[in-house]
Amino acid sequence: MVAATETHVKSRLAGDTTGHDWWHVDRVRRIGMRIASAEGADIEVVELATLLHDISDHKFNGGDYERGPREAAEFLIRAGEPATVAMAVASAIRSTSWSGRDQDGPTLSLEAQVVQDADRLDAIGAIGIGRAFAYGGYAQQPMHDPCALDPSTANTVIAHFYEKLLRVKDRLHTQTAKQIATARDAYMRNFLQRFYEEWNADDSP
Ligand code: ADP
Ligand code: NI
């Protein structure tokens, strides 16, 4: 089932340059399974949900938040997975959207919490920095605008750190993900400090 799902996901994501390529999915799967085993979550649901979590992203779909979860469940049922597993996977995927309806209530299943944490962890740290600049190129955003008065509202890659990336650490559910986030967050803050120092020709040799 995992191999069939991998093949399906690879064909759906082939050629993506917006930060949702196969290797994003593979990283979210691996960190997700690490969190799942530490937290005692259902490993099968987490592996299938992380694999399928980006097959139909709402941003490229006219804002349809239901399509991804629905397509994931349809795929699993067609492939012979029990409806209970398909439903658990769909509900975990529904929770991964950052900008979608607020899903942060205590109603989230443990597996949904793990999938959301895993996806968010891939947006921070060294990988998160890389993805943010790759996305900025795709969206034709400037890296930084030192004239923007409020760095959190400028439409730049650096602004995205303040809007989202530096907040991820405090929006995680599981203890395991929070521990992993600590070093990733510190690395990003260090990066930003260096970025400003070099920008201002202020870096020490
Ligand atoms: P995911 O689906 O992995 O949770 P998103 O779809 O929100 O993430 O974004 C994909 C990647 O692009 C992430 O690493 C995210 O931080 C980055 N990104 C999204 N929006 C912006 C933006 N406006 N500027 C820079 N990077 C962005
Ligand atoms: Ni993702």
TrEMBL record:
PROSITE patterns: HD (PS51831). It holds the Pfam family HD. Gene3D superfamilies: 1.10.3210.50. Residues 21-124 form the HD domain. This is HD domain-containing protein. It comes from Solirubrobacter deserti.
